[in-house]
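REQUEST FORM: STRUCTURE PREDICTION
Request ID: SP-0412
Submitted by: Lab K.M.
Chain count: 1
Length (residues): 273
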Amino acid sequence: PETSKIDPDTQEKINRRIGKEVAKRKDLERQLNELKVQMLDIQQPKTLPTEQPQIAPLPIGTAPLANINDINGLLTLQTQAKEAKRWAQEQLDRDDLGDGVQMGDKLMTKADLKSILRNATVTLEDHIPSRAGFLQQRNQMQQQAYAKFPFLADKASPQYLEAQTLLRNPANAWLHNLPGAEFFVGAYVKGMQALAAEESAKAKPAKAAAPKPKPAGDQTAVSTDASPTRVPVTTLNRQAMAAEDAKLTAKHGVSAKEYAAALAAKTQLRNSR
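STATUS: Completed
RESULT:
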């Protein structure tokens, strides 16, 4: 019977409806993953400080200026370092410096001023250029990571949530010293997914080989170099009878005993059809 066909206009409406429902589901998944990531930030201590850039020592093992993650932050710090350096130089050049400069309740001695001057110089000449290079390299590797592992930017993907969990885990704080941290995490998530699929495939039982069909009652299987070929039994019998006739014809004279044996063989083949 002929199946009813959906007209193009109706099919287009159905497709649009399906597309809207899929978009809604993806949006809900995206919102749920964003909430889960926010919960990670609340439940776990922050790996990197979020205060305004300052010329201050960072914890041992942390890359210099690791709390600055954009060029605007570096520009702000650069301005602060220049101002601190100039101020320290001006104070050191004062003729009435004496024991130092009173700053509120603290007396800034010459040693303190020289320390400010050194820190500002190191920040301007070493740390800021180094961090700028790091941020540039990280940005390039982020683009590569997003192209190679699209789930890193897809907030509706379960792999996105897994990657964010790894990046926010305090035990993985060392990752943030690597410009390719997201690429590394993307490769890890993708690799673990592939391993899980491989283990799942191994766990499935192997399919049993399909049994070969048996030949029909009036056929027999004849093996060749390539594969078994079914030949009707009657055809084989005719071939055998023709072979018996050929044997008798090849002999110019046959005895009664040989003729009788050949006749019996042909009779047996004829009866077996």
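NOTES: The two ends are 44 Å apart (CA to CA).
Reviewed by: T.R.
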